[in-house]
Structure formats: C-alpha cells, structure tokens
TrEMBL record:
<feature type="domain" description="Aminotransferase class I/classII large">
    <location>
        <begin position="55"/>
        <end position="355"/>
    </location>
</feature>
<dbReference type="Pfam" id="PF00155">
    <property type="entry name" value="Aminotran_1_2"/>
</dbReference>
<protein>
    <recommendedName>
        <fullName>Aminotransferase class I/classII large domain-containing protein</fullName>
    </recommendedName>
</protein>
<dbReference type="InterPro" id="IPR015424">
    <property type="entry name" value="PyrdxlP-dep_Trfase"/>
</dbReference>
<dbReference type="InterPro" id="IPR004839">
    <property type="entry name" value="Aminotransferase_I/II_large"/>
</dbReference>
<dbReference type="InterPro" id="IPR015421">
    <property type="entry name" value="PyrdxlP-dep_Trfase_major"/>
</dbReference>
C-alpha cells in the first residue's frame, strides 16, 4: 500500500475540524468562492423557480437526455478539435458521484491494484481504502515539476492522472501526455483523467491536450460547475470509450439515482455557456485577484500558475495564523511554507492582505 496517500484522509479530516472551530485562524485554502458573474451565468435559473422551467412531476433522467449528451459532445469537438460522440458521454450530478461510480466499477470488474501519477484527489484514497484497491505511484514528483520521473509499468493496468494539477494551477506537459499515449497503445492500459479543473486556461486557449489520448483507452472527467465556479449546482460528465458507456451509465444510475430537475437544467445552461460565451470573465477576475494579492506583499514566494483558481504560494503571514493545505495534502515533498490559496475567496485575500500589513 502507499501510506502517504491514505494519510491524506486523516489530514483532511483534521483540517475540516479546524476550519469549523472559531479560533481566529484564517482558512486560505477554502473550497468555496464567489464572483460577480454568478447571476449572469445562471440565466433564468437565477430568478425563476425550477418548477416553472420544467416538469417536477417526472424524474429528471440525465442519461436519457439525448439533447444534453449531444450538446456535451458538440462542445468537446469545438474545444478540443477531436471527434466526440454522444455515445461516449456519461452525464452526472457532480464529480464526486462519478468518482464513486468509477471506483465501484474498478472493484466490480476485479481490479484490486491500479497505478497513478501523483497527486490524486483525496476521495480516490477514500474509495481505494474502502474497496481494498492498492494504488501504486508511478512517479516521485508531480508532472509539472522539473525532473519528473515517470516510471510506467510494463503491464496492462488502469492509471489515474490529474490534469491539470489543481492545487498548483499547472497543466500536465504535452510530453508527459505523449508518453502516456504511447504506453497505452503498447500495453492496452486504461487511463482515467481527472479533468475537474479543465478548460480554465489563463492564456485563453480552449483545447485540453489530454483529449488527444487514445479515445478507446481513456476516460476523462469534466466538471462544468468548476468551470463556472458555481458549486451549489451539481454537474459533471465522463467521456469514455463507447463500449464502456452503457455499463458505466447503468452502474451510475443504480448507485445514485436520477438528478434533480435543477441540476439537469443547470447542466444544459453550463453546456450552452461553454458553447457560446465561455468563462473568460471569471478567469479575468481570477487573474486580477492574483495580481492584487501579489502586489499587496502578502506572498513571500509563489509557484507559476497557468490555469484554474488555486495558487501554490508561501504567505508572509505567520503559519500559526492560518488554516491551510500544504504539500502533505498532495503527496508533495519539500516546499516548506507553501500552501494552496483560493483566489476566489475574498475572505482569504482580505485576510492575507491584512496580515501582511501587520
């Protein structure tokens, strides 16, 4: 087993207890965040009760919504310039539910050992421990770091990859993805890409390079709620090899049931936004907050950021004044004093600025 991966569960439980205890410390790694565009992004959902927008007397079956699946396939073809069919789309109410479905599928198909490129989201560790699945790391560093040492097994397996590396706002380099694609074709291995924070590139680009991994050997999870930073609705989807779509969709439905009407309406709204306006206003806001925090003197050092809304940096504030996720939460050695900072948390930004002023 890999003790450091399972140790993350205890660390996350501890930070949850700490952030709910009013002891005056500032939580800078917040999961939540706000921005000025929520109402605009929601459209009719911002001011109209969902029951007036759809039939609440019926189950809201996401997977039976052919128009939604077609819309999701169309937006991926537009963003990634790769073929995508509705027969590859498994829509769901939230990324966590899809992680649970995928890990249940791993165990149900007899897989008790998988490989992964660190870091992975701590909920993977939860399900692996629950189901008795052994996770084996294939690198001692993270993909964006200098000296990344990818050691892929010479066997057919399932490998997990997080792209982008969310806590640091960094994308997996194309060379790493090329290596993975060649390895997949040579071994027939499946790769699951946790793309929860994809399509949030600061350079304005829309394509995600992981879309070029072999389609018949790759599962990729995308989360429009993160794309829009509207977490009160639940919306995510998997892009999977066509032969896996029906088994995974059936398993997901039996595990989680149907979505709410509100979440189904939001899934359509989010797909429409991705096809039309996009999230450039949100990303401009994130970049402005980053510039503001940097100019305030609240950071002693920081890693380069290129996507998403999490920054990995060392605040000037005394560590004992903060509640924060450091490298231990991501299986990251070194980087003393560096923590994840949510650039959409006004409370975190104001608090760090105030502590920097003394």
């Amino acid at each position: 087993m890999t003790p450091s991966l399972f140790r993350m569960l205890d660390l996350h439980e501890a930070v949850e207890r700490a952030r709910q205890r009013p002891d005056g410390r500032l939580f800078v790694s917040d999961y939540n965040g706000g921005h000025p565009f929520v109402a605009d992004y929601l459209g009719d959902l911002a001011h109209t009760p969902p029951y007036r927008l759809g039939d609440v007397g019926r189950y809201s079956a996401l997977d039976e919504d052919a128009a939604l699946r077609a819309k999701i396939a169309r937006l991926h073809e537009r963003y990634d310039t790769e073929p995508c069919s509705p027969d590859r789309v498994v829509p769901a109410a939230g990324a966590s539910a899809l992680l649970g479905t995928f890990c249940t599928w791993l165990r149900a198909t007899g897989r008790t050992r998988i490989h992964y490129v660190p870091p992975v989201y701590y909920k993977f560790a939860y399900f692996f421990r629950l189901f008795g699945i052994e996770p084996v790391p294939v690198a001692g560093a993270h993909a964006h770091q200098p000296g990344f040492d990818l050691r892929l097994p010479d066997e057919k397996t399932v490998l997990l990859l997080t792209d982008p590396v969310w806590y640091a706002g960094r994308r997996v380099p194309p060379l790493v993805l090329k290596q993975l694609a060649e390895w997949q074709l040579a071994t027939g291995s499946l790769v699951f890409v946790d793309g929860t924070f994809q399509y949030m590139r600061w350079d304005g680009g829309r394509r995600e390079d992981s879309a070029a991994l072999p389609a018949d050997l790759t599962l990729r999870m995308v989360c429009p709620t993160k794309y829009l930073s509207i977490h009160g609705y639940r919306c995510a989807h998997l892009l999977v090899p066509e032969p896996l779509r029906e088994p995974l969709a059936e398993l997901h439905l039996n595990l989680h049931g149907d979505a709410t009407l509100a979440d189904r309406l939001f899934a359509h709204r989010a797909a429409d936004l991705m096809l039309l306006e996009g999230n450039h206003r949100l990303l401009d806001h994130v970049r402005a907050n980053h510039q503001r925090l940097t100019a305030s003197g609240a950071l002693a050092a920081q890693e380069r950021i290129e996507t998403g809304y999490f920054l990995f940096a060392r605040p000037t504030a005394p560590p004992e004044r903060l509640i924060a996720l450091d490298g231990r939460y991501f299986e990251l050695p070194g980087h003393p004093g560096f923590v994840r900072i949510n650039l959409l948390s006004e409370t975190a930004l104001e608090g760090l600025e105030e502590l920097a002023r003394g």
